[in-house]
Amino acid sequence: MSERTIEALLQEGRRFPPPEGFRQRANVTDARVYEDAERDPEGFWARAAADLHWFRRWDQVLEWNLPYAKWFVGGKTNLSYNCLDQHLAARRTKRAIVWQGEPGDERVLTYEDLHREVGRFANVLKSLGVRRGDRVALYLPMIPELPIAMLACARIGAPHTVVFGGFSAEALRDRINDAKAKVLVTADGGWRRGNVVPLKRNADEAMQGTPSIEHAVVVRRVGEQAAVNWQPGRDVWWHTAMAQAPERCDPEEMDSEDLLYTLYTSGTTGKPKGVMHTTGGYMVGTYLTTKWVFDLKEDDVYWCTADIGWVTGHSYIVYGPLANGATTVMYEGTPDFPDKDRFWAIVEQYRVTILYTAPTAIRTFMKWGPSYPEKHDLSSLRLLGTVGEPINPEAWVWYHTHIGGGRCPVVDTWWQTETGMILITPLPGVTTLKPGSATRPFPGIGAEIVNDKGQPVGPNEGGYLVLTRPWPAMLRGIYGDPERYQQQYWSRFPGVYFTGDGAKRDEDGYFWLLGRVDDVINVAGHRIGTYEVESALVDHPAVAEAAVIGVTDEVKGQAIAAFVTLKEGHTSVAQMVEALKEHVVKKIGALARPEQILFTAELPKTRSGKIMRRLLRDIAEGRILGDTTTLADPAVVQVLKERYEETAGA
Ligand code: WTA
User: Which residues make beta-bridge pairs with 467?
Assistant: First the structure.
């Protein structure tokens, strides 16, 4: 983010205290929760844990062996039990999941229904040979079978690894192989803007190179339209298997520290990492943050618009809301199908009270204009949330005004796949909001902003966001790569967790997130590693070398720009641009498609051969070039800059 935008953020003077009516009824109204938690963080988390069901209570809240944490040590619990069985007495007929497909079909599952379906699918998994500790990969559209499968895995203690349906066959294969998953759950396809996403076809392609997979369970979602290559013996229809499965499946008594799931996310190397989340701490962290941040009440209709393929969906569509016994809405498709008012139609139809979405979506809605939300009755809404990237004050205020009708607090929540739970956020009944600021750490959370040397910086000075003490839902490691955990998160600054984000804190102690400071880019709220895209590019036979950077994009936050040098004998014609973009889509998925590709005879490098991304960013952002004195050949940059300006202007 540029210095100018930061200045604009800091000068943003508007304040939004909790509306009186909201505050009076809020779950948390007393700012003393911060001091209480600060005085005794472990006691604070233990009180939250006591709301939940444990087969055996923990002996110790936290065992902290920097950087290795164990939470609720010795405790035995089951997250599916807490999301389902716990509610059967009081909420048997309450709606657990309200789902709408893109074509407009609907399904409502009460807690009783969900409990039954999960029990059945847990038995299906068992019948396919899945045992406690075995990994199960889920590659599904946003349909109820996805949370059902997750909860079934949690029930029998088989860690799931959900792969976003937008990832390619190759990306799926790599994740399955890293996790050594035994079973893959997929669908014949999913709907997206009226088209079929060929999930089974991708899965088939992936399964050509996944020796660990013994079975694929296939949900019939799109029917005839999708060609499904059936492999008898390996492939099983979901509906056939479910029809034969008994309903009852007693939950496994899981240790607090048993693996609940892995979820792959991009980092600063070419290979995505399997972030590990365990059972007890993750359950407590997502349970309490859902309840407090979203002020969740018994009669709320809560809708988080994320895809369950990302951590936001794991924590705040599935586990957090269901652990609270909430009604959680799921929607399969895109916001512009069949028209640009789809979200608002859904809010109106289900009387959604809490809406949680991403800044990139809000900026898209802004671009489309207020006439779409104005067509619908949005008066049921009482709280709005955002996540995924910094929200610019303009988008915040637009959301507050045009979606929230000026009456709903907006909670800007900062967190990461690795943190598992929201860490920096307002409490809507307590916090006075400043548009563009995620405000302050959740009670019990320690966050600091430090300089290069790891020393805390003063008010309004930029620095690196670090976390100074363990929290219950923190990642426990990187699957199959123990060293990387230490190296990636706990080495940059001794004794604290490095987030990879830049931030400032103002004179009131409010945090302002400024974006990634590492080689991760955030495109429409999706994390993509520059090295991943570079590896995909150099995998193409024509490419000699590639450097990828994020460039500012008004709607997506950032877009991908690639500088590519071709091998001799290849010419940089327009078809090559398309071919390379398609190659990246094939290797990773459409979310990683470069927006711009620029061919160059050489990339700017230091004398030791390091590509100078900073200069590429300067070029792409049209800034005056930074220091070029360490360059091996400064002329390269000048030529590149001219070429870039020509291409961008063309
Ligand atoms: C960014 C998503 C500013 C940040 C839950 C972080 C944010 C990365 C915010 C994690 C926010 C997320 N304000 N930036 N409210 N929320 N980010 O792992 O750069 O997909 O490090 O988790 O998104 O992305 P991830």
Answer: 447, 497
